[in-house]
Amino acid sequence: MWPSLSLSALWLAACAVAAGSDTGSTNEEGIRSIPLRTHTLNPPYLDSDMQSRWFDFGGDTVIRADKYIRLTPDRGSREGWIFSRVPLTATNWEIEVEFQIHGNGNLHGDGFAMWLTKQRATPGPVFGSTDRFEGLGIFFDTYKNNRPGTVFPYVMAMVGDGTKTYDKANDGKDNEYMGCSARGIRNANVRTKARLTYFQDKSLKLEIQYKAEDQWELCFETNEPPTIPSVAYLGFSAETGELSDNHDIISVSTKNLYDTKRADGSANRAGASKGKDKRPVKQVEKKGSWGWFFFKLILFCGVLGGGYLGYTAWRAQKRSHRF
């Protein structure tokens, strides 16, 4: 039998964990964001066993716990990757990554990629990861092979269906979904960041910070976004060839997004369509709402508390029978 102290500690710990869940925040546009720990990376990156609970890494990747995850060093013919262990299954999300592309040479390459694909942790020829991928790839390409009239570094998105091949000789031009030039993204004087925001069937937007702090440049945006696999792993990879650079991931922040205004607006429109009925509509808490969450929390703690009291009463009764 457990001692009463252990059961009491278990009860308090369970309540503390449940009550301490991050409920996120809501911005002025009514978009509520809830952090996803499973797809977030911050120093020191690794646990006491020198492993990451939520990410795998390989190739030439080196992790310096106080500073960066270096996908490749500034040396030729290197490649490295880091991928989430669990898929990103949120319907709407925002991924913000801080990174650095830097080196000493005037000639440099090749760049790094951000992935949301069915495949994971598979080295290959596309910025250090596999070709013929299924999902979305965002390429931060620093070396120009053959794209006349295009200013490099160039940031480009490609949507793979499992059969398309990335044409490295022409910097992926034939299969480009959207993209933008980002001169100054390498050896930048400010922290370089990319923010990818996705609302299923509604929008996809990529913004980049590299000119000034808190100044976001719109790279591309569409109201007809591609379909991203429902099971897609978040990853980053990089490669160097004859030319090289340091490709560092500093941090990754992923959030689940929820449009509160859209939900309220839908409810309001539904109520307005029944204009003849002027009676107030009774508000019902739906499963998944915060009211329902706290109700379940109180119920959960109540059950544990009742069990604890019953157990202590049983112990006291049993002790009294001994005399």
From TrEMBL:
GO CC, any one term: Golgi membrane
Single GO BP term: endoplasmic reticulum to Golgi vesicle-mediated transport
Coarse class of the protein's main subcellular location: membrane
Keywords in alphabetical order: Membrane, Signal, Transmembrane, Transmembrane helix
Spans through the membrane: 290-314
CDD domains: lectin_leg-like
Occurrences of domain L-type lectin-like (ranges): 33-257
Domain of life (superkingdom): Eukaryota
InterPro entries in the record: ConA-like_dom_sf, Intracellular_Lectin-GPT, Lectin_leg
Signal sequence residues: 1-20
UniProt topology in membrane: Single-pass type I membrane protein
GO molecular function: D-mannose binding
Protein's name according to its UniProt entry: L-type lectin-like domain-containing protein
